[in-house]
C-alpha cells in the first residue's frame, strides 16, 4: 500500500480507481486503467499480453496522454530508456501508422528523423499477390523514449517494457474466460493448445459456443496467427502449424466451417493440394495449407462473436 501511495504521488492525474482491475492505475481524465509492465517483450507479445488483460497497448492520442504515459515510464522503467505504445504499421499493406485499439490517428510526437521512410510496408506489400497472407515480419512499431517523450520507428522484435490500457467499460465483451478480443477484427479468439484432429478441434470449438476461426483480412491473418503461436509459445520456425476453419466442400472447394464467405486469401498450387479435406495456418508467414491427411493432429484456434 505504501508503494502505491508513493507511486500515485509521483504521477499526477493517476489515482486508485476501484473500477480498475487490481494492479492497474486509474486516471482522472479518461475511462482507462493503465497496466505498467516492466518485463521486456516484443511489440506483438506485449500487445497480446494487453489483450489477455482485456485491453491493448496504450494509445497516445494527445499531448496530455503522452505526458501521462511518459510520467508512468519515468516512475517505473529504466530512464533514459524506451517502451512500447500501441502504434504500428501492422495494418494491411499500406505502411500507414495506426493505433491497435482503433483510436483515430491524428496526434503524433515523432522524433525529428522518424518515422523512417525506408521502413514502410509498401515496398514489401506490392510484391505479394493480391489476397495472399502477408508475412508477419514486415512491420514496425512505435517506441516512446523517456525522458524526452518522442516516438521512434522501431523494430518490433526489440524487447521493451510497455504500458497497456484497459477500458473500464468495454464496448465489446468476449465470453469468459480464456477469450481475447481484437478491436481490429471485432471478434474474440481462443487457442486450443492440445493436439487433435480437425474434426475433434471443430467439435471442441462448437462446444464452446464458437467455431474454428475463419479469416477475412490480412490484419486478422496476422493477429490470429501471431496470437496463436504466442499462446502456444511455439518457436516461429518450427512446429508452427495449427488448424483454422478451412475445409473442402463436397465439390472440393475450400470453405470456412463457420459459414462465412471465402473472401480473402488463397490456397492455390501446392498449398491446397494435400490429401486432407482440412486446412491450417503454417509457420510465421501464416500461409494456408491443406494438411497431409485427416488424422493429423494439431492445436487450433476458435473464434466467437463478441457481445
Ligand atoms: C507529469 O509529471 C509532472 C512532474 O511531476 C507533473 O507536473 C505533471 O502534471 C504530470 N503530467 C501528467 C499528465 O501526469
Ligand atoms: C494510407 O495512407 C495514404 C496516404 O496518406 C492514404 O491515401 C490511404 O488511404 C491510407 N490507407 C489506409 C488503409 O488507411
Ligand atoms: C503437439 O505435437 C507436437 C509435435 O509432435 C509436440 O511438439 C507438442 O508438444 C504437442 N503439444 C501438446 C500440447 O501435446
Ligand atoms: C469451385 O471452384 C471453381 C474454381 O473457382 C469454380 O469454378 C466452381 O464454381 C466452384 N464450385 C463451387 C461449388 O463453389
From TrEMBL:
Pfam family, one: Lectin_C
CDD domains with a match to the protein in the record: CLECT
Source superkingdom: Eukaryota
SMART domains: CLECT (SM00034)
InterPro entries in alphabetical order: C-type_lectin-like (IPR001304), C-type_lectin-like/link_sf (IPR016186), C-type_lectin/snaclec_domain (IPR050111), CTDL_fold (IPR016187)
UniProt KW keywords: Signal
C-type lectin domain segment(s): 29-165, 184-288
Region forming the signal peptide: 1-18
Protein known as: C-type lectin domain-containing protein
Biological classification of the source: Eukaryota, Metazoa, Ecdysozoa, Nematoda, Chromadorea
Amino acid at each position: 500500500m505504501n508503494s502505491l501511495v508513493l507511486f500515485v504521488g509521483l504521477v499526477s492525474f493517476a489515482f486508485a480507481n476501484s473500477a480498475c482491475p487490481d494492479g492497474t492505475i486509474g486516471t482522472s481524465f479518461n475511462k482507462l486503467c493503465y497496466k505498467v509492465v516492466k518485463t521486456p517483450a516484443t511489440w506483438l507479445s506485449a500487445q497480446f499480453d494487453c489483450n489477455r488483460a482485456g485491453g491493448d497497448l496504450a494509445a497516445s492520442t494527445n499531448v496530455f496522454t503522452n505526458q501521462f504515459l511518459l510520467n508512468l515510464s519515468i516512475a517505473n522503467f529504466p530512464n533514459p530508456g524506451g517502451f512500447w505504445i500501441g502504434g504500428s504499421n501492422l495494418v494491411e499493406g499500406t505502411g500507414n501508422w495506426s493505433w491497435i485499439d482503433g483510436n483515430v490517428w491524428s496526434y503524433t510526437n515523432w522524433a525529428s528523423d522518424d518515422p523512417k521512410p525506408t521502413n514502410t510496408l509498401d515496398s514489401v506489400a506490392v510484391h505479394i499477390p493480391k489476397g495472399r497472407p502477408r508475412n508477419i515480419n514486415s512491420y514496425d512499431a512505435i517506441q516512446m523514449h523517456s525522458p524526452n517523450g518522442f516516438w521512434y520507428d522501431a523494430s518490433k522484435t526489440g524487447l521493451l517494457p510497455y504500458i497497456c490500457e484497459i477500458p473500464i467499460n468495454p464496448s465489446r465483451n468476449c465470453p469468459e474466460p480464456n477469450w481475447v478480443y481484437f478491436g481490429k477484427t471485432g471478434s474474440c479468439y481462443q487457442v486450443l493448445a492440445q493436439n487433435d484432429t480437425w474434426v475433434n478441434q471443430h467439435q471442441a470449438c462448437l462446444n464452446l459456443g464458437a467455431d474454428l476461426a475463419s479469416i477475412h483480412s490480412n490484419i486478422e491473418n496476422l493477429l490470429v496467427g501471431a496470437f496463436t503461436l504466442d499462446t502456444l509459445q511455439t518457436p516461429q520456425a518450427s512446429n508452427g502449424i495449427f488448424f483454422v476453419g478451412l475445409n473442402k466442400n463436397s465439390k472440393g472447394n475450400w470453405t470456412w466451417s463457420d459459414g462465412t464467405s471465402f473472401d480473402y486469401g488463397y490456397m492455390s498450387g501446392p498449398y491446397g493440394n494435400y490429401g486432407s479435406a482440412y486446412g491450417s495456418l503454417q509457420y510465421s508467414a501464416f500461409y494456408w495449407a491443406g494438411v497431409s491427411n485427416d488424422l493429423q493432429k494439431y492445436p487450433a484456434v476458435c473464434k466467437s462473436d463478441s457481445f
